[in-house]
C-alpha cells in the first residue's frame, strides 16, 4: 500500500478536463500519479509535540549529516528536537490498549 497526498489528488481532480475517455482510466491515472506521502516531518515545517511522541515522550529524529554525508537516526525526547538538532522527525503511533 502507498500513502498518497489526498489534497494534491483532489487538486488534480479539480483541474482535470472531463471528456469521453475510451478506456475510462482517468481516476486510475490520477491515483497512480498522486504524490507519495512521507511519514517523516521536516523540523523546519513544524516541531514535534507531545501528541507525536510515544508513551515515554520520545520521537525518532533523523539527522542528515550534511558534513559527514551519513544519516543518523536517534530516539529523542520530543521537547529536545529543534531545527538545529534534527532535520526530520517521525511521529510515533500510540501503543494499543490491552484489556486486562
How would you describe this structure to a colleague?
This protein is an alpha+beta fold. The protein contains 2 helices and 4 strands; from the N terminus they run ααββββ. The chain has a 4-stranded antiparallel β-sheet, with no helix packed on it.
Q: What's the short version?
A:
By secondary structure, the protein is α+β, with helices and mostly antiparallel strands. It has helices at 6-15, 26-32, and strands spanning 41-42, 58-63, 72-77, 88-90.
Integer tally of domains: 2
Helix-strand sequence: HHEEEE
Q: Mind summarizing the main beta sheet?
A: 4 strands, antiparallel
> Can you count the beta strands?
4
Name the average pLDDT. 76
Number of helical stretches of at least 4 residues: 2
| Content of β-strand | 15-25%
In oligomeric terms, what are we looking at?
single chain
Strand order in the sheet with the most strands = 1-4-2-3
Structural class: alpha+beta
The value of Rg in angstroms is 19 Å
End-to-end Cα distance: 33 Å
Flag low-confidence runs.
none
Q: Identify the overall geometry.
A: extended
Q: Which percent range fits the helix content?
A: 10-25%
Write the layout of secondary structure elements.
Elements: H1 6-15, H2 26-32, E1 41-42, E2 58-63, E3 72-77, E4 88-90
Features:
alpha+beta, 100 residues
Amino acid at each position: 500500500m502507498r500513502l498518497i497526498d489526498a489534497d494534491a489528488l483532489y487538486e488534480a481532480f479539480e483541474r482535470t478536463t472531463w471528456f469521453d475517455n475510451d478506456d475510462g482510466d482517468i481516476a486510475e491515472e490520477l491515483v497512480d500519479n498522486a504524490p507519495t506521502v512521507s511519514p517523516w516531518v521536516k523540523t523546519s515545517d513544524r516541531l514535534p509535540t507531545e501528541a507525536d511522541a510515544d508513551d515515554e515522550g520520545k520521537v525518532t529524529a533523523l539527522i542528515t549529516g550534511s558534513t559527514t554525508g551519513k544519516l543518523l537516526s536517534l530516539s529523542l525526547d520530543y521537547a529536545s528536537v529543534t531545527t538545529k538538532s534534527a532535520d526530520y522527525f517521525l511521529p510515533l503511533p500510540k501503543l494499543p490498549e490491552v484489556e486486562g
